[in-house]
Amino acid sequence: MGVYPIKRRIMPSATVPKNLLGLGVWSEKPNLLKGLTASTARMLAKKLKEALEFGREPVDNALSFANGVMDGFGVETITGPYVDSYYRNINAIYVNVGDPHETTILFDTMRHKFYAVAWGTWVEIVELSARRKMD
Question: Containing domain of residue 60, as a range?
Fold first, then answer.
């Protein structure tokens, strides 16, 4: 199971409007973010796109918005190596949906990209990538 760009792998449906395609958001499976209506998914896609264009505070605001529309349990962080003076050692920020294997919105602070991925999967991919670099 890997992470694939939405623009290549996601199937447009009632819950995933076409304007999510090509926003720099990546997905591991086609049924991105269960339970969102098409209009809510469009609003979320717009917030994520704007956040990438305007910087760090909008990223935090977009994740808070995502938490609200996804009925999440808050916005949480994954720490690791030092990133920069703003994020410090926060490597990812994600909406907690209650299960590390459920698709959520995650922001990778090192790559400055949003992903639609289970945060547990993201951690596994990052760890595997780091091990490969050390070999």
Answer: 4-134
Grade residue 32 by pLDDT with cuts at 50, 70 and 90.
low
> What Å distances lie between residue 108 and 18, 90, 91, CA to CA?
23, 9, 6
Nearest-angstrom CA–CA distance, 91 and 115: 13
- String of DSSP letters for 55-106: -HHHHHHHHHHHHHHTT-S-EEEEEEEEEETTTEEEEEEEE--S-TTS-EEE
Cα–Cα distance between 114 and 55 in angstroms, integer? Answer: 13
**C-alpha–C-alpha distance, residues 91 and 81, integer Å:** 7
- Count of domains observed in the chain: 1
